[in-house]
Design a protein that fits this description.
A two-stranded antiparallel sheet has the order 1-2. The protein is elongated and about 105 Å long. The model has no long low-confidence stretch (mean pLDDT 78). Helices cover 73% and strands 5% of the residues. It is mainly alpha-helical. The protein has 2 domains: 62 residues, no CATH class; 75 residues. The protein is built from 7 helices and 2 strands. 5% of the residues are buried.
Length: 191
């Protein structure tokens, strides 16, 4: 849509075919109709002239490569500058700083919520209790499995029979395989 001011009034044309006309995307009938429209509509004629002037200036600026000369090692300079500006990101106490900032933002948000902070704190307490219960369950399960493996391996090793030793090696390989597989399934890698 283009507008033209004429005698303290604005004329706005709803025709949006200027870009399609300039790009040659109109059919023959639509192009003929648009050319007729341009002869009658001053706003569209002005818009078409503006588009053509813009495209000519853009083409001239893109064709003029003599005005911009990049140094031969431009890419190397940009990469080394980018790498040197990232120096402070990997500090040893970065985790502690992040935890302190997060805690400060949490306390600030509690004050910002005012009366609703109690409801938020209650919800967070309930979530915390569930997470703690889940963590204790996992720890107890791991402890029970470790105790069971220790008891079975101790009883098998005490007999020193070849069959017991084969069973012990099989149990140990199975345990290592299960722990390795569970780490791969959850996305953690073994170290």
């Amino acid at each position: 849509m283009y507008q033209v001011e004429k005698n303290d009034s604005k004329h706005i044309c709803p025709n949006d075919d200027i870009a399609a006309y300039v790009d040659g995307e109109l059919s023959a009938e639509a192009e003929t109709a648009f050319e007729r429209h341009i002869s009658e509509c001053e706003a569209c004629a002005r818009g078409l002239l503006d588009q053509r002037q813009f495209l000519a200036a853009l083409t001239a600026s893109l064709d003029d490569t003599s005005s911009v000369q990049l140094p031969a090692d431009f890419t190397k300079r940009v990469v080394s500058n980018a790498e040197s500006t990232v120096a402070g990101v990997r500090r040893p106490n970065e985790l502690l700083t992040a935890v302190c900032i997060t805690a400060a933002l949490f306390v600030f948000s509690l004050f910002a919520f005012g009366g609703e902070a109690f409801a938020i704190a209650t919800t967070l307490e309930a979530v915390g209790e569930r997470v703690l219960a889940l963590g204790l369950f996992v720890l107890r399960l791991a402890g029970g499995l470790a105790f069971a493996i220790a008891v079975i391996s101790r009883s098998l090793v005490s007999s020193f029979e070849p069959a017991g030793l084969i069973i012990l090696v099989t149990v140990l390989f199975t345990a290592v395989f299960v722990f390795y597989s569970s780490g791969r399934l959850t996305g953690r890698r073994g170290t």
